[in-house]
Amino acid sequence: MTTVTSKPEISVSGLYVDSVHKQFRLRDGTEFTALKNISLNLEDNQIGVLLGPSGCGKSTLLRMIAGLESIEEGTIRLNGRVIRGAGADRAMVFQSYSSFPWLSVRDNVAFGLKGRGEALSLREGVVDYYIDAVKLTAFANAYPHQLSGGMQQRVAIARTLASNPELLLMDEPFGALDPETRWQMQALLLDIVRKEKTTVLMVSHDIEEALYLGDVIFFMGTKPGRVCDVIRPNIERNGQDRDALLELDRYRELEREIRAKMRSQALELVA
Ligand SMILES: Nc1ncnc2c1ncn2[C@@H]1O[C@H](COP(=O)(O)OP(=O)(O)OP(=O)(O)O)[C@@H](O)[C@H]1O
Q: How many angstroms separate the alpha carbon of residue 54 from the centre of ligand 1?
């Protein structure tokens, strides 16, 4: 593990968060510091995980990167450009399945492309490709209410990937799924992201998910929200059976370390 003592080097490609602070004004007029001096760098084609206890500011940071929350202090750059509000270069997948209920799977996935005015033939090819990637070809004409939670989340992932974002942001995308479906979805995401060479930043408070998916884990602490550690698991996942992966010494050692950090953060919260 690397204790964060200095800012990461600026790289032109990828995501670069530099000295970001976030304060909220509460109802009684007092200011609450949700994020303090956040600096991090996520390289292209990597999966980054924001991991930390409840309330440490994971979703707030993700929303700032998405442009859904204002940035008053600090700078966020994506591939060299300063982020100022929402943009087509970023797409977000939420925990709740955010498909359009009145559109079929096919039309949901096509939605992002229509907005960009792609030619029809090209659009159809892209839509079919992503429906296939999330293994929903047999359900292309079904409507969201006819699908399970996991399938609906696959629609949301296909729709965001089809819009070809430079950065895919995911806020606990599998949090509402049962463990078995969650594992399947994680494996599917890993597979798609490797093939598509997508850059992903996701929020999780699940250590196993972070270690399974993350090329880099930004471990966050509370009071105020900050990045405490940058962890690069360096676990060889290619072709690894999941259960075998969980038995690796490296995996178990990291899991133990992170669990201890989680516990000490939880103690600070109640102190
Ligand atoms: N609009 C807001 N106004 C005031 N406080 C807010 C606002 N949004 C978030 N907060 C506070 O900022 C802190 C960080 O919230 P955030 O949702 O980002 O945490 P989190 O790490 O994602 O938590 P969880 O894992 O429980 O979802 C919390 O204390 C929360 O109450």
A: 8
Strand order across the beta sheet in which 81-82 lies: 31-42, 15-25, 73-78, 81-82
User: Quick check: 91 and 165 in contact, CB under 8 A?
Assistant: yes
Confidence (pLDDT) at 19: 95
User: Does 108 lie in the same domain as 223?
Assistant: no
- Total tally of structural domains belonging to the chain: 2
Claim: this prediction has a pTM higher than 0.90: no
- Domain carrying residue 121: 104-164
The ligand 1 atom at the shortest distance from the C-alpha of residue 57 is: 18
Which among 83, 85, 89, 9 has a CA at the least distance from the CA of 42? 9
d(CA 113, CA 44): 23
Report if residue 97 sits inside a domain.
Answer: no
> Which ipTM was obtained for this model?
0.97
The answer to whether 67 and 61 have CB atoms below 8 angstroms apart is no
Residue whose CB lies within 8 A of the most ligand 1 atoms, among 27, 28, 56, 60, for a mutation test:
60
Residue 81, domain member (yes or no): yes
Q: Kindly state whether residues 76 and 176 are assigned to the same domain.
A: yes
Q: Considering the domain boundaries, does residue 94 fall inside one?
A: no
Residues 73 and 176 in one domain: yes
Taking only the tens place, the pLDDT of each residue in 182-205 is: 888 888 888 888 888 889 999 998
Of 27, 59, 262, the one to substitute when testing ligand 1's pocket (max ligand atoms within 8 A of C-beta) is: 59
| Shared domain check, 174 and 265 | yes
- Looking at the fold, whether 44 and 70 belong to one and the same domain comes out as yes
State how far the Cα of 162 lies from the Cα of 105, in Å rounded to an integer: 13
pLDDT per residue over 26-57, tens digit each?
A: 888 899 999 999 999 999 999 999 999 888 99
Q: Which of 161, 165, 209, 168 lies closest to 185 in space, CA to CA?
A: 209
